Amino acid sequence: MSHQVSFTGQITPEQLQTIADDGFKTVINNRPDGEDANQPTSSEIEAAAKQAGLAYKEISFAGNALTQPIVEEFADYFNEAEQPILMFCRTGNRSNGLYEAAKQMDLLDD
Q: Which residues pair with 56 in a beta bridge?
């Protein structure tokens, strides 16, 4: 089975219903609160995700601070999460890097 996962930059609470309407089932946030002054908080996005019927998980880390425990936490959640999954951070690169790291460590179920 191939993974149904997409990566994007920062999303806003107002976008969560559209994300759900587009068929996503789960949202994973890889961006810590407070990186940018105008950034919505994880709790704001989580509330909007739940209202839109989406599962939500924050696994945030600074761009240069990816560690083995973060990769393992992500893989454990990813393997149980309903797909398709939308992962986001500031630009999408951090989320993609986390996914690729988990794949390289062979932590993701096929």
A: 27
